[in-house]
Amino acid sequence: MKKTNVNTFQGMILKLQHYWADQNCTIMQPLDIEVGAGTSHPITYLQAIGPEPISIAYVQPSRRPTDGRYAKNPHRLQHYYQFQVMLKPAPKNIQDLYLNSLKILNIDLKNEDIRFLEDNWENPTLGASGVGWEIWLNGIEITQFTYFQQIGGLNCNPISGEITYGLERIAMHIQNVNNIYDLVWNNNKITKLTYGDIFKQNEIEKSHYNFKYANTNFLFKMFEEYIKEIEYLLTLKIPLPIPAYEYILKATHTFNLLEARKAISITERKRYILHIRTIAKKIAKTYYDFRKKLGFPNLLKTK
Amino acid sequence: MEKTFLVEIGTEELPAKSLKFLAISFLKSFEVQLKNTNLIYDKILWYASSRRLALKIFGIKKNRNKIKSNKNILKIKSKNGKNLILNKIQSPINNIYKKREYTKKILFNILDKVIHNLPISNQMRWGENQEKFIRPVHTLTMLLDTKIVHGKLFNITSKRIIYGNRFIGNKKIVINSAKEYPSILQDKGKVIADYETRKKLIKEKANNLVLNFNGNIKFSNNLLEEITAIVEWPVALIAKFKKKFLKIPEEILIYIIQNIQKCFLIYTKENQITHYFVLITNIKSSNPKKIITKTEMVVNSKLKDVEFFLQEDCKKKLEEYQAQLQTIIFEKKLGTLLDKTNRLKKLSKWIAKKIKANPERAIRAAILSKCDLTTKMIFEFPGIEGIIGMYYAKKNKEPEDISIAIKEHYRPKFLNDKLPSNKIGDALSISDKIDTLVGLIGIKKIPSGTKDPFALRRAANGILQIIIKNNYDINLINLIKKSKKLYKTKLINTNTIENCITFIFNRLYSIYQTKGCKTSHIQAVLNKSETNLINFHLKVKAISYFCSLKISEKIITNSKRILKILEKSDEKLNQNIDSKLLKKTEEIHLKNHLDASQNKLNKYLSRKDYKSFLIELDSFEKYIVNFFKKIMIMEKNKSIRINRLTLLKKVYNLFCKIANLSLL
Question: What is the pLDDT of residue B122?
Fold first, then answer.
């Protein structure tokens, strides 16, 4: 196989996957449900609870409907890619592992300006919080680095280290372009595809949909139904936290769409967030209890 | 033998905004603990950077003359694991321990205690550690001269290895002697560990660059401290943004470049903003152009966003954003920002009338005061509320004082912050703060300890500072009552008014203490429940002046003596003195003087001439002296006794009309 070319979006992802696989991470595939960030993937969210160790890395497409800009803003997208790494327990040298991953992407740490800026992360919807940093490369944030302290309202033990790369931003640095749509996704003998070739139309149509045309009655109804389904799944004789969690994600995305349509008064926004958070906590607890009952089997898996 | 002690704790990047506080807390706690031992020293220096905290103690030796109290018994494990207790009797320490080991163990014990009790909230756990600290710890180095001090913190063993700069210089450095610190870090590790040196260096480097530019930097101390805390090896570079963005209002440019991007704007010698700025990097790069270009890209893209949002926002007039305020919750039980705005309209009008400001303008300012919170600019950049409101108001040709009030009504944001610069701002600021205060206390969300999420203490301080500085004649109790009324049925706390009064008046302590007033003076005046702030201010001033006079000593002593007598007797006293029961000369004279001085004293009171009032009390001196000399207060005859006590009570009450003198 030819050497991976870091100067394409595709190559950059492959490089990161190889690197983290070399660090003994299991390379997972992205979640097939709309989420706002890689943390929401059940392999991160649910696995961060409880004592069972895990080391994973994956690409996660992330949607933030309110960030749509009709493809007119060269730096902002309502759909973009995160590269998510979770190491549980967080190894002592986790910062060095991260910095080395930048090196393999040809970022010259001896000559570029890297700073760790305090940023304590919180996702109130999921009842999650952590302590860590935004990492800046020459003045722009490229990564969020977090030591989870709480998930679903439960204290984490051991502590997971989560590294979330902003792939587009890093690519723009590596490829030295000033406009996301000019990023080269792939460049081979047959074709050269840019980010714009693949996503520009998507951004335009989605922006229109998110801000103007989404049917809010339909979205409200879906939201209500999702919530009902979650409560049903959690109150079964043998509760089903995993499908319930998937519905939380669907409900959250629906809620984000309603927000983009400005259909939710922020009066109700806080009420919805609180509601979702309560359910997310219930799911976290149910999942934890379920793993506990099984005797936390993955504890024995580490060689 | 005098020794030098070094302790360095190597960590992951420490929070920049609290680094200095952290380092100084570390220093102070260590100092306090040292006092409890019989070690003495010449001085302690502190060092701090993003990845380390260190202390260096010079000239340590045992003080043979210092006897420790019983409270400070140290248990020390000897080498063979037995517990040895040092007590204050001259224990044959020298026979049990070599001097150095003793010192080492004491220093480690102190460190252990101090590190686990730093006054920092929100500490974290990491890995499989159960212990908490601010950020994960990687190295521990404790040296007494050239010898390692053994010990473990957070499962890290004390070693001679310290880490240098992450990116340049030597990553790992072996330190042989305490005296090599911090120069070894600078020479080999490309780290400037001394905080103040680094801060000065950053300023110098930035200024040097700007010299060539014929420009000038207005250093914000907060930003300077933050950058000092972030970089370990500062290098200054100059960059620029597109000149066209200079049409963005200056305050917004400052916010983006300084608060968000953490760079220093360059001004001309005439203090005009330019499109140039200084960035401080954490590395001496061989390709600084790249860093500059990338930074410029980021800044230009942010400013382009700003331009876009300003354009979008200005499609509507500021007042048109009012309707959206009903979509933002102020507090779940207290309603929306639109509800708050409606209350602020009424409060501002009420206050404006009291302070002789234009009530119509105050109402208008209230209407516009929160409108910017629903704009796109604020959604994107939540730190510039008020500034945006002012800018949009000006664009809509609202009167100047209203526009400025919109920006300034958040002041004062902290104890030494500026106050609003016009009366409309004052009225609006007080309204907003009292509304928040009464509302939250009204739903029993009274701040405790370190938890004050709605910043009620700041709000109370702000209200007091504005009223006191401007000498406004606002009755705080009426203000609280008016605010409470506007909440109609929302407040569940039946003691809202009392709680608010207590809360606000407690803030007077901190305000007056910073002015240099003694706590006892403040307490003495507060004890008399003075609710008018102007009067309070005059009284505290009067008491402070009074206490500096010689005559005050006797008056205060007399007051305390009288109080003691009154407290001893638990009999019911009369309302009035019965002249017929006064038999002896001294008590008659005292009563007469009491009557005679009423007029004069009352005149002083009504003129608020509290100084003269207090000075006049000196006239009682000889009568009181004689009274105590010759009068048998605890007379057997009940009615005479009661009468004498009543006389004393009347004198005491008179003396304490302004302040409770017995508290001085």
Answer: 82
What was the pLDDT predicted at A299?
Answer: 87
> Which residues have C-beta within 8 Å of that of residue B466, sequence separation ≥ 6?
B412, B419, B420, B426, B429, B430, B472
Partner residue opposite B13 with nearest CB, options A76, A133, A156: A133
Phi, psi of A212, rounded to the nearest 5 degrees = -125, -35
Q: Locate B235 and state its tokens.
A: 């290098």
Which DSSP letter does residue B68 get? P
Mean predicted confidence (pLDDT) in B128-157: 93
pLDDT higher than 90, residue A259: no
Cis peptide before A239 (omega within 30 of 0): no
Residues B572, B639: Cα–Cα separation, whole Å: 11
A-B C-beta contacts closer than 8 Å? 110
How many angstroms separate the CA atoms of B594 and B346, rounded?
Answer: 48
Nearest to B524 by CA among B473, B515, B512: B512
Distance from CA of B230 to the nearest CA of A (A): 7
For the residues A195-223, what does the mean pLDDT come to? 95
Cβ separation A89–B327 shorter than 8 A:
no
Check pLDDT > 60 for residue B525: yes
- Better-scored residue on pLDDT, B265 or B129: B265
- In the chain, the amino acid numbered A244 is A
CB contact under 8 Å between B136 and A147, yes or no, is yes
Q: What is the number of H-type helices and E-type strands within chain A? A: 8, 11
Give the model confidence (pLDDT) of B334-382 as tens digits. Answer: 888 999 999 999 999 999 999 999 999 999 999 999 999 989 899 888 8
Q: Considering CB atoms only, which of B230, B298, B304 is closest to A140? A: B298
Tell me the one-letter amino acid at B99.
Answer: K
Sign of the CA dihedral running B496, B498, B503, B507: positive
- Terminal CA-CA length for chain A: 31
Select from A93, A115, A269 the residue whose CB has the most chain B CBs within 10 Å, as the one to mutate to test that interface.
A115
Q: Can you read off the two tokens belonging to residue A153?
A: 């309202």
Selected residues 564-623 of chain B with any CB under 8 Å from a CB in chain A: none
Is residue B96 pLDDT above 70, yes or no?
A: no
> What value does the mean pLDDT take over residues B572-581?
88
pLDDT per residue as tens digits for the range B456-474 = 999 999 999 999 889 898 8
Which candidate from B17, B138, B308 shows the least CB-CB separation from A118? B17
User: Which contacts of B611-619 are long-range, i.e. CB under 8 A and separated by 24 or more positions?
Assistant: B611/B541, B611/B542, B611/B545, B611/B546, B613/B542, B613/B657, B613/B658, B614/B542, B614/B543, B614/B546, B614/B552, B614/B555, B614/B658, B615/B546, B615/B549, B615/B551, B617/B555, B617/B654, B617/B655, B618/B551, B618/B554, B618/B555, B619/B593
Of B323, B328, B343, whose CA–CA distance to B439 is shortest?
Answer: B343
> Which amino acid is it at A170?
I
Residues in chain B with CB shorter than 8 Å from the CB of A270 are 329, 332
3-state secondary structure of B67: coil
Q: Report how far residue B95's alpha carbon sits from residue B84's, in angstroms, rounded to the nearest whole number.
A: 13
Q: Quick one: closest CA in A to B296, which residue? A: A139
Q: What is the pLDDT of residues A148-183, one digit of tens each?
A: 998 888 888 899 999 999 999 999 999 999 999 999
Decide if A88 contacts A146 (C-beta within 8 A). no
- Please state, in angstroms and rounded to a whole number, the distance separating the CA atoms of residues B593 and A269: 71
Side-chain-side CA neighbours of B662 within 13 Å: the count stands at 16
Express each pLDDT in B22-50 by its tens digit.
999 999 999 999 998 889 999 999 999 99
C-alpha angle B335/B341/B345, rounded to 5°?
135
Residues of A engaging B, defined by a Cβ cutoff of 8 Å? 73-76, 89-92, 95, 99, 108-118, 120, 131, 133, 137-140, 147, 149, 156-159, 173, 178, 265-267, 270
User: Nearest chain A Cα to B137, which residue?
Assistant: A92
